[in-house]
Amino acid sequence: MAERQAPSPFTDMNTDQTADRSPASLPPVGRGRRHISPVSLGLSVVAAVAVAFVALPLLGIAWRTPWSSVLEQLSSPAARAALRLSVLTSAVTALCTIVLGTPLAWLIARYEFVGRRLLRAIITVPVVLPPVVSGVALLAVFGRSNGLVGRMLFDTFGTQLTFSPLGVIVSQTFVAMPFYVLAAEAGFTTIDRRFEQLATTLGASEKYIFAGVTLRLAAPALLAGVVLAWARALGEFGATITFAGNIEGRTQTLPLAVYLLLESDPSTAYALSMVMVSVAVAVLVALRGRYLRGNR
Amino acid sequence: MAVTIGGPSTAATPPLRGELTVSAAASLTESFTRIGRQFRREHPGIRLRFNFASTSSLVSQIQAGAPVDVFASADLSSQDRLAASGNITSAPRVFARNTMQIAVKPGNPLAIKGVGDLTRVGVIGLCGRTVPCGVYAASVLALNKTNVPESQITRGTDAKATLASVAVGDANAAIVYVTDVRAAGKAVSGVAIPARQNVRAIYGVSVVRGSANRAAAQAFINYLLGQEGQATLKSFGFLAP
């Protein structure tokens, strides 16, 4: 295992500045207002379609939400149970991703070792895997009747992950952790390592440098990663219903409740959907520095 | 019996062509797939496509304007609902019946003998409350005076998803259709429910209003009610209408 070369602090200080790395031979190209050409007009029309395509369905949810009775809908037993369960499980999932993901992200970011790329690829698979397949995969390992680890867990500790809130957390952590690890890795890679070197020359212990310098400098990236992972966990559907099941009050999270209520109680389904849209918007506002401003 | 409808009489008319979309209850997945293959052989000009989901999902889709030609449901009340909302043109025809069964792990390791045992086997799989198989399962539980708390029920989105909670998942039992247990092969075993404590599921089929290919839709329904369609349904464990 060899320590990776620290990126030069003069070119790679911050991820937000990647756009400024234009080839030195070309003059910088700004985003100034220039004349409107047919091409830019055409592109703008397509862009408007793209924006409408995403924005209209969101407005559609707001339109279908029964605003006059929304609190009433949200306080129905099924809705309250789903809200409580989702808040609880997604919060624990966020914690799990931090505890499990931070050391991994740090290793991948700082050390060059055989299989590092493979490791990163493996940890990223759940991002692109259909969530139902993630659920099937979890059953194959953590299922009580068919999973090796699951059977051992049950025989040894009497713990059954499936059909329990614990199983919901397992499903959510499986699909959400990559979002955190990738964001944290980027954070660890791009912090200015001269601060760590400086701390070393001042006689700081390795432990102090990691906690007081490295983690502190990477904190914005870590936080952004946690928020993303948490939002992904909150929206988890396929892996949860496949692995943890769909038990009211135990494993029926918000998305599962929305799907089932859509036929029996659409107004509650819309009210719950509106909650999730609001959370998604709030997440983006919280991360506005990273995603709303772009690279400007 | 409807055995005389359809059949060779169609040979005289010009061949049917075009697209045909059949929305069918999930419990019809295997049988309709087979029937579809036979139907295509008889009508090579028709491009037949199936859309399998829970009957209640299909109702929502059709009411939302999904371009569907034929609607085959696992109950008659869904047909009535679509008739009331003006979404079907023909009077629904009954084409099959079905009954419920308890699906258990292969070999029935927990020795489940009947519905009454379902209170003691941990989490069981049932279809969603508004899905026909969930409604039938609720009736079966009520007929057997068995009360399973909601905290012990994992709700499947349709009959196949509910069966999967036993076949691949960790549920020890589920109430599904006899035909689902049969179609699952070795993945599950079935525990019969005596007729007096069981319900009859009635399957209805109709032509959806706005169908762009009514002739083909009617031909499919005729085929379903005809000798071959009925024989295939029977081979999958469905009861005659």
Q: Could you explain the architecture of this structure?
A:
The complex is a heterodimer of chains A (296) and B (241). Chain A is mainly α. Chain A has a single domain (73-291), classed as Orthogonal Bundle (MetI-like fold). Chain A is built from 13 helices and 2 strands; from the N terminus they run βαααβαααααααααα. Chain A has a two-stranded antiparallel sheet with strand order 1-2. Chain A starts with a strand and ends in a 5-residue tail after the last helix. Mean pLDDT of chain A is 86; it is low at 7-22. With 241 residues, chain B is α/β, with parallel strands linked by helices. Chain B has 2 domains: 7-97 and 202-235, Periplasmic binding protein-like II (D-Maltodextrin-Binding Protein, domain 2), CATH 3.40.190.10; 98-197, Periplasmic binding protein-like II (D-Maltodextrin-Binding Protein, domain 2), CATH 3.40.190.10. Helix content of chain B is 33%, strand content 24%. Chain B has 8 helices and 9 strands. Chain B has helices at residues 29-42, 55-63, 77-84, 132-143, 159-167, 178-183, 214-225, 227-235, and strands at residues 18-25, 46-53, 70-73, 93-104, 124-127, 153-156, 173-177, 189-192, 200-207. In chain B, β5 (124-127), α4 and β6 (153-156) form a beta-alpha-beta unit. In chain B, α1 runs antiparallel to α8 (227-235) and α2 runs parallel beside α3 (77-84). The termini of chain B are close together.
